[in-house]
Amino acid sequence: MYLRKRRPSIYAHQNEADEITYLKENLLLPIEKAGAATFQTDLERFAYQEKDALTEIDKRLSKRKYLLGDTVTEADKLLYQTLLWHDYIYYYLYKLNFTKSFDFANIARYEAELKQIPDIADSIQIEDEKRKAFLGLEDAWNPYHLVFCGPEDEVWQ
Question: Around Cβ 38, how many Cβ atoms within 10 Å?
Fold first, then answer.
């Protein structure tokens, strides 16, 4: 009988792959669907799914420093970038404005911690991302090509 060798995961641990899958299915997918929603009921359903995911992540972070314990992983980098995008772009553009990530105590602590790590902090240039997101809109959405101000960086301190 031929036994197929398992390929090694691109992630250090299966737990990391599981965490990334959780983030994609429960946070990123509802965000993407909210951005494409054409009915109010759909937008609200996806917004609640996103809020529930943030609540669950905040609960998980109450028990550990990072998503998988005391070590920063690619899952943390993905979440950090998603949280910044949420607060600066999705909140406004996709109308996902129930809450901002820093409204969750454990997520706020987590983000402040990750912001001190150069490889994580430098992985996203949020002002550039804001410009691309808002200036890339059709004129009907943003006829004067304005990019909102804020939130102030102090909220991340």
Answer: 6
